Amino acid sequence: MAHIPRKRFGQNFLQDQGVIADIVNAVDPHPGDALVEIGPGLAALTGPLITRAGRLHAVEIDRDIVAHLTQRYSAEELVIHNVDAMKFDFGQLADEIAPGGKLRLVGNLPYNISTPLLFHLASFAPRIADMHFMLQKEVVDRMVAEPSTTDYGRLSVMLQLRFYMERVLDVPPGAFYPPPKVDSAVVRLLPWPEPRYLVNDLGRLEDLVVAAFAQRRKTLRNNLKGIVDDTLFATLGINPGLRPENLEVGQFVALANALDTVPSRR
Predict the structure, then answer these.
(1) Which residues pair with 218 in a beta bridge?
(2) What does the CA dihedral 191, 195, 196, 197 come to, rounded to 10 degrees?
(3) Inter-CA distances, 54 with 35, 43, 46, 69, 71, Å
(4) Which of 133, 129, 132, 77 is nearest to 103 (CA)?
(5) CA-to-CA distance for 193 and 52, rounded, in angstroms?
(6) pTM above the 0.85 mark?
(7) Which residues make Cβ contacts (< 8 Å) with residue 23, sequence separation at least 6?
(8) Distance between CA 7 and CA 262 in Å, rounded?
(9) Binding site residues for S-adenosyl-L-methionine, as ranges?
(10) What integer pLDDT is reported at residue 204 of this predicted model?
C-alpha cells in the first residue's frame, strides 16, 4: 500500500522486523484474548498479533488505512472501529467482546496526542488487563519516573495511581517510516489489582496535581496558595517548602482527601 503518512494523525509507521517481533513477544497474545490495537497503521503489528491471537479489534481514524485493512483481513480476523480513539468508549467495547473480562490494549500511539490519550485510557483501567504502547521515549521517562527526579510530574502521579508501569524496550528513529525526530520506547501498563489509595474525589486530585506542577521550580506553598494552607500541610507532615516533584503519589492523594475537611472546599 502506497500510503503517505499524515502529519495531522501523527503517523510514523513501524517497519523494523526485529522491533516488531520484540513487541509482539512482550505482549504475548493468545487465542481468546480480547485484544485491541490502537492505530494499526500499515499493519506492522496487526498481522503478527492476528497470527498469535486469531482475532483482533482495531481502532483507526484514517479511512484510507481502514479501507486497506478491510481488503487485507477478513471480518473474522479483524474488526475495525473507524473512530477517534480519544472519543472511543473502551468500556462499552469491553462489555461487548469481554463480558465479565478485560481488554488487552496495544499500539503505536500518535505522539502528538499521546498524553491526553493515556489519560482517556486510564479512565477505563477497571476494564483493562494490560496495555503495551510505543511512545516517545521522553513520555515513557515521565510515566515511570520516581519522585524527586526531573522527569517526575503530573503524568507520573496520575498514571502511577492506577498502573504499575515498566519500560519494555527502547526503539531508535530508524525503526519507523518516516523516522521521527525523537527516540521511542515501549512501555507496559498493568492496572493495580486493588486501588493503591482511596481517592475521595478524583477530579479534585487531578486539579491539585495540575496546580502543584504548574511551575516546577516553585514550592508547594507557592503553587498551592489559596488551595492548601500551612496548617493543612503541617497536619499531614508535608513540608510546604518542598517542590512538587518531592511528593509521592500517596502524599498527593492525602492532600486532596484532606481538602474534604476544609469547610470552604466541601
Answers:
(1) none
(2) 140
(3) 10, 15, 11, 15, 17
(4) 129
(5) 26
(6) yes
(7) 45, 106, 132, 134, 168, 169, 186
(8) 47
(9) 12, 14, 39, 60, 84, 108
(10) 97
Q: Which residues of 6-90 form beta strands (DSSP E)?
A: 13-14, 35-38, 56-59, 78-81
Q: Which three cell numbers stand for residue 37?
A: 490495537
At position 15, the amino acid (one-letter code) is: Q
- pLDDT at residue 199 in the model: 97
Taking 70 as the pLDDT cut, the residues of the chain under it are 1-11, 262-266
Q: Which domains does the chain have, with CATH numbers?
A: 7-191 (3.40.50.150), 202-265 (1.10.8.100)
Sheet strand arrangement including 56-59: 78-81, 56-59, 35-38, 103-108, 128-136, 184-191, 163-171
- Residue positions in the annotated binding site? 12, 14, 39, 60, 84, 108
Looking at residue 7, its pLDDT comes to 43
Contact, 35 vs 49, CB < 8 A?
A: yes
pLDDT value, residue 262: 64
